[in-house]
Amino acid sequence: MIIEQKINVPFEFPVVFTDDIFAPENRALVDAIDRLQEQRKHRAVVFLDQNVERQHAQIRDKIESYFAAHKDRIELATRIQTVPGGERAKNSIVLNLEWCEDMLKWRLDRHSFVIIVGGGAVLDAIGFSASLVHRGLRLVRIPTTVLAQNDGGVGVKTGINVRGIKNAYGTFAPPFAVINDFQFLLTLDDREWRSGIAEAFKVAMIRDAAFFEFLLKNAAKFRKRNETAMRHLVQRCAALHLDHIRTGGDPFEMGRARPLDFGHWSAHKLESMSRFAISHGDAVAMGILIDTAYAVECGWLRNDDVLALHEALKSAGFPLWFDELDHGDIFDGLREFQEHLGGELTITFPSQIGARREVHEIDIAMMQSAMAKLKMLAHA
Ligand SMILES: NC(=O)c1ccc[n+]([C@@H]2O[C@H](COP(=O)([O-])OP(=O)(O)OC[C@H]3O[C@@H](n4cnc5c(N)ncnc54)[C@H](O)[C@@H]3O)[C@@H](O)[C@H]2O)c1
Ligand SMILES: [Zn+2]
């Protein structure tokens, strides 16, 4: 006998854009936590990225005052927890197990909240622990970098690095809510500020030609840290990522394609070849440039498209060549990309600006020729 089983589980979560999230009169956080109107007080723990704490001197007091101002709806189960910022948070499963045990110790249950204030790495690391305890606590993400606000933080994944493999362990765990506060972005250094800009170019090129035009036109403004332009970039990019996860038909990535990883096969390799001295954003900018140049070689895009992208990334402040690319090792990135996903090699390229195609074979000679042209362009 075979009983065919099929389960559909809807996930709903708001992604809110606001300013000054912990001002007592700002209801974004308390309303997000209370959005199911469960008529009770909610218990929460707050994990805070160490570097956010450093840059925002009053933040602990502000969070505590916020909880005090809304004490009819929310309460802190313990004091605010500071965690290492950046990739360090993702590099030790021992830390994850400690956080899990802490969550048990504080008697968090499946209706309690884990609130994370931090960059994408801290969101991934604490999110991973929170998704394990009691098979998943309610997670509220408050991303504090451009990349986390417009890409990683609005998605449905968690992850940590094991044996040097990025995101080797992780879970699919949609959050309860995401709240993006633009004010956090003002304390990022230039490198972190531009990191998420590469992801905006990435998603625009395969999904939204009008947004791509906007990015080309405003590239120099991003470098000058123009806030109006950046707000639009973050919101549109987040909306496109959310749209893709909602409508792309494969939110938990069971299939073999990962369209949002356009440009990422070489980006991931570049990051690891540089021992992570090259940031994810800088690597992605280079990665989409390489795959765009390849798309030109294949006749899918016009030469003007790669020139326009090159010019815009330059204006936005991205490095346009890395010596690591002179080593053949970069092509190992194709195999590693395939291994992480499983199944046949599938790489997404723009088929024209704003649309995409999937490719199962890469002509290495053509890729080398595309890269040689980029190298010349970068040194012109
Ligand atoms: N889960 C996903 O779907 C997904 C998607 C994309 C990326 N990611 C992951 O996200 C991570 C990268 O995230 P990121 O780009 O946000 O970098 P990050 O989390 O490494 O943060 C970069 C640095 O900025 C600091 N920082 C954070 N907010 C700050 C602020 N407001 N002011 C000053 N400093 C601040 C951090 O402490 C860190 O030192 C990677 O580990 C990547 O794998 C996950
Ligand atoms: Zn990325």
Describe this structure in words.
With 380 residues, the protein is an alpha/beta fold. It folds into 2 domains: 15-187, Rossmann fold (3-Layer(aba) Sandwich), CATH 3.40.50.1970; 191-378, Dehydroquinate synthase-like, alpha domain (Up-down Bundle). It has 14 helices and 11 strands. It has helices spanning 28-33, 50-55, 59-69, 93-105, 120-132, 146-150, 190-207, 209-223, 227-247, 264-273, 280-297, 303-315, 332-341, 364-378; strands spanning 15-18, 42-49, 74-76, 81-83, 113-118, 138-143, 160-162, 165-169, 177-181, 347-352, 355-359. Strands 1, 2, 3, 4, 5, 6 and 9 form a 7-stranded parallel beta sheet that branches. Strand 10 (347-352) and strand 11 (355-359) form a beta hairpin. The mean pLDDT is 95. It binds nicotinamide-adenine-dinucleotide (NAD) and zinc ion. Residues 49, 51-52, 55, 85-87, 90, 118-122, 124, 144-145, 147-148, 151-152, 155, 157, 159, 167, 184, 187-188, 192, 195, 280 line the site of nicotinamide-adenine-dinucleotide.
Major sheet description: 7 strands, parallel
Question: Could you say what the CATH topology of the largest domain is called?
Answer: Dehydroquinate synthase-like, alpha domain
Total count of helical runs of at least 4 residues: 14
Share of helical residues? 40-55%
The first-level CATH class name of the largest domain: Mainly Alpha
By CATH, the superfamily of the largest domain comes out as: Dehydroquinate synthase-like - alpha domain
Contiguous uncertain segments of 5+ residues: none
CATH architecture of the largest domain, by name, is: Up-down Bundle
Q: Ligands in the structure?
A: nicotinamide-adenine-dinucleotide, zinc ion
Radius of gyration: 21 Å
Q: Number of DSSP strands?
A: 11
Topology order in helix (H) and strand (E) letters = EHEHHEEHEHEHEEEHHHHHHHEEH
Q: What is the rounded distance between the termini?
A: 69 Å
Q: What is the overall silhouette? A: globular
Return the domain count: 2
Q: Hey, roughly how much beta strand do the residues contain?
A: 5-15%
| Class by alpha and beta content | alpha/beta
Mean pLDDT, rounded to whole units? 95
